[in-house]
Specification:
binds fe (ii) ion; Jelly Rolls; alpha+beta; about 200 residues; 14 strands; 2 helices
Length: about 200
């Protein structure tokens, strides 16, 4: 049995969304222009419910689960759904690429950080946390807007978010709040078959 469920209609909408990103890239959009276009496309995608479910074993032990929805062979970007159990949180991290994140179900707290290069160790400054609800979209855009932490603040409901990144990542940089130093760490595996 497949570890996930998604209707043909949602499948089609995800691929339409990916096609529109491809079109933007073919037009030559890059940097913040591309992130802005993808943000608009993501808002359109999330204007209708995205019903995706996976077996709960895929995101047990407080960890989040990742489901790869699209990997673009030509332009390298990916679209993935993430499943956040109640109370789960990511470390403070960056991805080394642009990203557009939207909430499909539940709520997601997003906190961004600024990093000041300081001797002997850098300093991390937290920005105010933003609580995102279904349909809301946020972005990460290196080099000045990329360090962040995401968490599901709910005590009893799962959060599902749809992430679009400039490339497939196996690792990310995890930051220590006290020292401000970064360490490269493996991401939870994308264990699901491509759709
Ligand atoms: Fe992230």
């Amino acid at each position: 049995m497949s570890p996930f469920m998604m209707s043909q209609k949602v499948h089609h909408r995800i691929h339409q969304y990916a096609d529109e990103i491809r079109l933007a890239m073919k037009e030559g959009l890059t940097g913040s222009n591309l992130v802005e276009r993808v943000t608009q496309l993501k808002k359109k995608l999330l204007s209708q419910p995205i019903n995706i479910s996976i077996e709960s074993e895929q995101y047990s032990n407080g960890n989040y689960g990742r489901l790869l929805l699209h990997q673009d062979e030509e332009f390298e970007f990916i679209v993935a759904a993430m499943f956040w159990p109640p109370g789960s949180t990511s470390p403070i991290h960056d991805h080394g690429t642009w990203g557009v994140v939207g909430v499909a179900e539940g709520m997601l707290d997003v906190t961004k950080f600024d990093r000041l290069e300081n001797e002997p160790e850098p300093i991390l400054f937290s920005r105010p946390t933003i609580r995102a609800f279904p349909g809301m979209v946020d972005t990460v855009n290196p080099p000045h807007d990329e360090i962040h932490l995401v968490a599901n603040p709910s005590k009893d409901s799962i959060t599902i978010s749809i992430h679009t990144y400039g490339k497939l990542m196996i690792t990310h940089n995890v930051f220590d709040i006290k020292s401000g130093l970064a360490e490269e760490r493996m991401l939870p595996q994308l264990t699901y078959p491509r759709i």
